[in-house]
Each structure stands twice: as C-alpha cells, then as structure tokens.
Design brief:
With about 200 residues, this protein is an alpha+beta fold. It is built from three helices and nine strands, in the order ββββαββββαβα. It has a five-stranded mixed β-barrel with strand order 1-4-5-8-6. It has a two-stranded antiparallel ribbon with strand order 2-3.
Length: about 200
C-alpha cells in the first residue's frame, strides 16, 4: 500500500508549505491562529511554523470570529499599491477572518473558505488588510457572497476589534480603517498578496 498523494513525511510549514487554494482568490485556505475564545494573541513563528504567544491582549476585547492567514501570500508592494497614500505593507502573510455558524474553538486548523470582502487597514502607515470570508459549505452562511450580506452588527464588531486590539492605554492609536470593501476588491487583494509572495519567495 502506497502513501496518499500528497504525503508529507514531516509537517509542512503552514505559511510556505501549504496552498492558498486551488481556486484562489474566490475560495482560499485559511490557517487559523486565534479563535473568539482566546484572550492572548497567538501567531505563527515565521522561522519554525509553530504557534507562539505574540502578546497578551492589553484590552478586554476578543476576536469576534476566527482569525488567521492565507498560506503562500505576502503583503508587500502589490498589496500596498491598492491603498491610497501608502507605499509599504506590513511584510506578513495576508490576514483572514472566517465566519462560521457553529462554534470552533481550536487553532492550527485548515479551513476552506469563500472570500466575501475585507477591511482596508493601515497600521503605523503600512497596509495591513484583513480579508473576510465564510466557511465554505456552512449551511447558515451559504447565501453570503459579499460582506454587505453579513449582519451589520457583525461587521461593526470586527471593525471595532481591529481598531482597538493593538491599543495601549494612554497612547494614541496607530490603526485606521479607511475602507470596508466587497468581494471584488478582496479578490484583487488576495491576488496581489499571492503575487507579492511569488516575487519574494518564488522559484523564478
């Protein structure tokens, strides 16, 4: 009996060793780092691929949805070019928020998701977009094809979280969200991040 294809003798790096998705940017793979039940910010260590504690949250807010990144994406010049007044991106994989009807309380999981929009976020003068998606096949969110289809209260919660999750009491905010965009623009951001990845890490 042979090994299944693909077969990994060792665990692949979640950023570099996995696919963004066969039909990206419409459907993309999400690697989940944080759930709505987490009060500590976890992040993949870029060198090892293991999850690490990035920082304890200084505030009381928790992410209202699942949060992670899209493998084989990178935010650099192509992503920055989509944001007015910004010439640099944050140099990280492209972040993604995933809406699921059923509670999911585990991290380091892979999900097939459908991209529906995003937040154009600027953090310290750098582009730091947050893609919004729904869990593919979710029966409750099956009809959602654009962020405008989500309940406004949920979109507001996500926006508030990203505006406040890096806040330090007594210091001025460094984050702004000038635009909440729909599926078409989100697809363009995903394509740009995939292009930035190939420019930076590709074999060519």
């Amino acid at each position: 009996m042979g090994f299944p294809i693909p077969f990994y003798r060792w665990r692949p790096h979640p950023w570099h060793g996995l696919s963004a998705g066969d039909d990206a940017p419409v459907h993309v793979t999400a690697f989940i780092e944080i759930t709505p039940y987490d009060v500590v910010k976890y992040e993949v260590d870029k060198a090892t691929g293991y999850l690490k504690v990035d920082r304890p949250q200084t505030g009381s807010s928790s992410p209202p949805v699942l949060y992670g990144f899209i493998p084989r994406t990178y935010c650099d010049k192509r992503v920055a070019a989509l944001v007015d007044g910004v010439d640099k991106a944050d140099g990280d994989p492209l972040d993604i928020c995933v809406v699921s009807e059923r509670p999911i309380d585990r991290v380091e999981i892979l999900m097939r998701t459908r991209v529906i929009g995003g937040f154009q976020m600027i953090d310290g003068g750098e582009a730091d977009d947050k893609i919004v998606a729904v869990l593919a096949g979710d029966p409750v969110w099956a009809g959602v094809t654009d962020i405008a289809d989500l309940p406004p209260a949920l979109v507001t919660r996500m926006e508030h979280y990203f505006l406040s999750y890096k806040s330090i009491p007594g210091e001025p905010p460094t984050v702004s969200i000038p635009l909440i965009y729909g599926a078409e623009q989100a697809h363009a951001v995903v394509r740009a991040a995939m292009g930035d990845y190939e420019d930076t890490f590709g074999d060519g």
